[in-house]
């Protein structure tokens, strides 16, 4: 009995220690994000703050086709993510990932996903309301399964696939999100027009 209590206390202490170390590292990264020149990452326009979704929450957009990790300083990319998100994530927020027209050159390395996830403070995970993957493929499904199974199991229920832009508009008003022209063209090519005539729900978003 006492042994179980001691193990629980030890586990709790380990968790607290990890979060303290994570917070300290995050604060160092945040300071660097304000000091370093991140204009080369910003110029890609691959990660940016959108407007508000239909529940009034802010959201961020990640354009996969504009992200080429082999050509980037990934440490600067992490600093840019922190710089963009830090002042927003004190309230619930969501993330929209646009996968249209990506190739293997655009695929985000799992090691970088882990690096980002492990670098962000607890509030990022607690305030994350949803991740929407637009135009999913087998690759996004495999990576999502792997990442939410072995690294971020606590956000698995927050990740949803969205088969097309019209479904996305059921979640986010069109005037609140700046979609690249090629995403709209791709959506028209694969889905046609007016293919969504009902409000999207969490269950239908998981198709």
UniProtKB/TrEMBL annotation:
Chain ranges of the CRAL-TRIO domain: 36-191
Highest rank taxon of the organism: Eukaryota
Signal sequence segment: none
One Pfam family it belongs to: CRAL_TRIO_2
Alphabetized InterPro entries for the sequence: CRAL-TRIO_dom, CRAL-TRIO_dom_sf
PANTHER family linked: OS01G0948300 PROTEIN
Descriptive protein name: CRAL-TRIO domain-containing protein
Lineage: Eukaryota, Metazoa, Ecdysozoa, Arthropoda, Chelicerata
